């Protein structure tokens, strides 16, 4: 088995313990101590590979439509290292997204992942904006079976422009992509950003 469950866990433990042991005694055996230590990688506990089960690598039920009765008219189901422990260190994850008619995923960015999205049902208007100084908007209308890529870090969105529900799946190039929703971060922070900081930019528009 690869990933956190095997080599990485062992090598991390080995490195950390060897350093500690070298401080305590130059003759200590690093290999012996490995057995008793809990190791975390990327903030997630590394399970003893002997105790891993198929459930550490699976998630069931993405076929079940999610409830989209919320202000955005969409629901994201995350399938990342928080749901599948075995994804730790593997650098991939998944989301499925249900959209009510005219539902949207508002502008957001994933600080640690590029995203590749495929529409399974419905019609989506999708896009992303490049960075300064161009801030160029790239958009596309996608139907069932169509694919679009959102490069790492760029602000992107999806909007169901059809009159029916839509469903999409997306692969992400991190086991823990992170999400920054632009409006939440800029206008909804806790505590709020000093309005003077925001007002100057808004006046310039
Ligand atoms: C969907 O969510 C809304 C809002 O939380 C709730 O009122 C409604 O009962 C839910 N519908 C179903 C079918 O669960």
From TrEMBL:
Top-level taxon of the source organism: Eukaryota
UniProt: Mn(2+) binding residues: 108, 110, 115, 156
Keywords: Apoplast, Disulfide bond, Glycoprotein, Manganese, Membrane, Metal-binding, Secreted, Signal, Transmembrane, Transmembrane helix
Subcellular location per the Swiss-Prot or TrEMBL entry: Secreted, Extracellular space, Apoplast
A molecular function GO annotation: manganese ion binding
A Pfam match: Cupin_1
Domain Cupin type-1: 60-195
Xref: InterPro entries: Cupin_1, Germin, Germin_Mn-BS, RmlC-like_jellyroll, RmlC_Cupin_sf
Annotated oxalate binding sites: 110, 115
Cellular component aspect of the GO annotation: apoplast
Keyword 4Fe-4S part of the UniProt annotation: no
Keyword Signal: yes
Transmembrane segments: 20-41
Main location: secreted
The family this protein is said to belong to: Belongs to the germin family.
Chain's role: May play a role in plant defense. Probably has no oxalate oxidase activity even if the active site is conserved.
PANTHER family, per the entry: GERMIN-LIKE PROTEIN SUBFAMILY 3 MEMBER 3 (PTHR31238)
Protein's recorded name: Germin-like protein
Source organism of this protein record: Acer saccharum (Sugar maple)
């Amino acid at each position: 088995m690869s990933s956190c469950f095997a080599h990485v866990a062992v090598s991390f433990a080995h490195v950390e313990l060897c350093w500690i042991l070298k401080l305590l005694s130059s003759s200590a055996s690093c290999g012996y101590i490995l057995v008793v230590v809990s190791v975390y990688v990327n903030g997630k506990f590394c399970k003893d590979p002997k105790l891993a089960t198929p459930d550490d690598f699976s998630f069931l039920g993405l076929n079940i439509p999610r409830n989209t009765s919320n202000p955005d008219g969409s629901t994201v189901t995350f399938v990342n290292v928080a749901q599948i422990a075995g994804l730790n260190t593997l650098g991939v994850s998944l989301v499925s997204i249900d959209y009510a008619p005219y539902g949207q995923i508002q502008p957001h960015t994933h600080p640690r992942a590029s995203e590749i999205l495929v529409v399974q049902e419905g019609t989506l208007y999708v896009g992303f904006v490049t960075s300064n100084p161009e801030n160029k908007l790239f958009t596309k209308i996608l139907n069932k079976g169509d694919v679009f890529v959102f490069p790492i870090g760029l602000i992107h969105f999806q909007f169901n422009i059809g009159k029916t529900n839509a469903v999409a799946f997306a692969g992400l190039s991190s086991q823990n992509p992170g999400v920054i929703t632009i409006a939440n971060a800029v206008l909804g922070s806790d505590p709020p950003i000093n309005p003077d900081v925001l007002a100057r930019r808004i006046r310039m528009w």
